[in-house]
Amino acid sequence: MPDTSRSARLSRRFFDRPTPTVARELLGKALIRRIAGQLLGGLIVETEAYLSSGDLASHSTRGLTRSNAAMFDRFGTLYVYPIHAKHCMNVVTGRVGEGSAVLIRAIEPVWGLEIMMDHRGTDQLRQLTRGPARLCQALQIDREHDRIDLLTSEEVWISQGCTLKSEIISTARIGISAARDLPLRFFLDGNWFVSGTAREHHNRPSPEDRLWRSR
DNA sequence: ACGGGGATTTTCT
DNA sequence: GAAAATCCCCGTG
Question: From the Cβ of A85, is strand C under 7 Å away?
Answer without folding.
Answer: yes
